[in-house]
Amino acid sequence: MMTESTESTESTESTESTESTESTPALALPALEEVSTVACVGAGTIGGGWAAYFLARGFTVRVWDPAPDAAERLGRLIDAAWPALRQLDMVAGASRDAWSVHADLAEAVDGAGFVQESAPEDLAMKRRLLADVDAVTAPDVVVGSSTSGYGMTEMAAEVSRPERFVVGHPFNPPYLIPLVEVVGGESTAAEAVDWAAAFYTRLGKSVIRMDQEVPGFIANRLQEALWREALHMVDNGEATVEQIDRSITEGPGLRWPMQGPMLTFHLAGGEGGMAHMLDHFGPSLQSPWTRLDAPELTPRLRDAVVAGSDRAADGRGVAELIAERDAGIIAIRRLSESGRAGAGSGADSGAEAAQ
Ligand SMILES: NC(=O)c1ccc[n+]([C@@H]2O[C@H](COP(=O)([O-])OP(=O)(O)OC[C@H]3O[C@@H](n4cnc5c(N)ncnc54)[C@H](O)[C@@H]3O)[C@@H](O)[C@H]2O)c1
């Protein structure tokens, strides 16, 4: 195993780096192929999923998570993820045991060539934590955050080397969903964003590299619109949790693995394509079909959504639902990848093909 080249990264001009971010920050980023160890800071649903994925891609994974049961939870998560990763032929040569949980953050990031932060979605906590990570991580190691919607500009407010901090937003479960949205903050060096995008791509992820910070990035903005409307419908007694889920899984959701919402609507226009679609249905845009402002999450609404979800689970526990979901995602990925390959498209499938 190669070691990280941290000794060559101490820049003699490091004190200038925080204000020289627009053009050429003093970053000596490691070569991608030299990175053999990754640190996961926070190892819940997402951090643990990342850990499983990094392990499958052959990395040694060092973890820091303050929860007393973090190691047990992570062990269970890796146990659940590994069979799914194996089915996708992604674990060849990898060791599922190459992980360790450390009592100390500095110890966990020691020797890591990349850090993935996945602590709870709390801005004050992220700010403090990223400052702590910054203080103990080798200066030219890129740090990615799994945040669902904060910008790196606001999260990196207290770090001294913001140029190496990027958002690397995954989707649950990170070991199966290919997409990662990558975007920097105002003080992130473009080369760090490029490095992170290349790193995730090298791992087999499908990366969208965004040029500007947008709250919620791309996919979560879209998901949030659907989620808000769904909550309004439950709140108003217009639809049940079960009806909402089925309206997607038995309806538009079936099209989305193959074609996204835009190409889907291109076909909704028939031979006239998107142009006809817009001309035909444009006036409907003015109809009051959606509300978009978030509903107030009253106890009544919360209880209704929780009770509906319990009914939808129909006695199946979380582990059983995860296994069902993973089997379904694997089947859909195989079908949609072969479908795209068969259609000769592949415009956005380069990273996945590498797997
Ligand atoms: N759950 C999702 O679907 C999803 C999807 C994409 C991104 N995210 C983002 O990933 C991040 C983690 O979310 P999650 O769903 O895994 O949450 P989670 O609650 O499952 O896990 C959070 C973990 O962080 C640990 N933790 C608590 N305080 C910490 C600290 N100070 N430093 C480090 N770790 C700490 C907890 O012990 C826990 O293990 C959030 O930023 C979230 O927005 C979540």
Blueprint of the fold:
Elements: E1 37-41, H1 45-56, E2 60-64, H2 70-87, E3 99-102, H3 105-109, E4 114-117, H4 123-136, E5 142-145, H5 152-155, E6 165-169, E7 179-184, H6 190-202, E8 206-209, H7 219-235, H8 241-249, H9 261-268, H10 273-281, H11 299-313, H12 318-342, H13 350-353
Parallel strand pairs: 1-2, 1-4, 2-3, 4-5, 5-6, 7-8
Antiparallel strand pairs: 6-7
The chain binds nicotinamide-adenine-dinucleotide (NAD).
Nicotinamide-adenine-dinucleotide (NAD) binds at residues 41-47, 65-67, 70, 118-121, 125, 129, 146-148, 169-172.
InterPro entries: 3-OHacyl-CoA_DH_NAD-bd (IPR006176), 3HC_DH_C (IPR006108), 6-PGluconate_DH-like_C_sf (IPR008927), 6PGD_dom2 (IPR013328), NAD(P)-bd_dom_sf (IPR036291)
Pathway: Lipid metabolism; butanoate metabolism
Protein name: 3-hydroxyacyl-CoA dehydrogenase NAD-binding domain-containing protein
